[in-house]
Amino acid sequence: EDEQIVAEILGRRFFPDLITHKTWEGFHFAGHEIRITEATDCYGAVVWPSALVLCYFLETNSKQCNLVDKNVIEIGAGTGLVSIVASLLGAFVTATDLPELLGNLQHNVLRNTKQKCKHQPCVKELSWGIDLEKNFPRSSCHFDYIMAADVVYYHPFLDELLLTFDHLCNNDTVILWAMKFRLEKENQFVDRFQTLFDLEMISNFPSLNIALYKAMRKGRMKA
Fold it and tell me: Which UniProt keywords apply (predicted)?
């Protein structure tokens, strides 16, 4: 079953027939052909399999996870694929990442959502742990969903990442997080995450070493 679903997920990717001066990859999600421009010199500007796993879940679980008119923020949006799919499924999306990635992110989001979505998504800078209250004040920012794909890897900002999850998450916010397991240090982040949030694994793909989690604040999952 794992291999069949993984083949279906990875089968959503396609490549251009002709090589042009601009490198892009294509994906089929939410009834649309999505073209993503990547930058191979930057880790955050590449589509990783965790993003495909999350996009596949959003599309195939659109009844249980109805995004229409929901307020969604993606942290570490990278190329923007997850944000684009969430937008095509009817959400109002804020796609966020580091300032050096915003140009390519904005290009991909605009290219694939303009005049195709109920709510035009926005792109915004978010450096984990920095100026969170200033840029995303708790009093006015309420997100129904926080989405993240492959944000835990070998980087020195795991503390700041946890702080960002904590700041953006209200009592009724649902976190959807796809994670590829790599090294033990990064894997320990899951244990730290569970000090603040209840965590449920909703999909697991051993052949990709990727798990998809749903999380809410402690005590709110059953409520």
Answer: Methyltransferase, S-adenosyl-L-methionine, Transferase
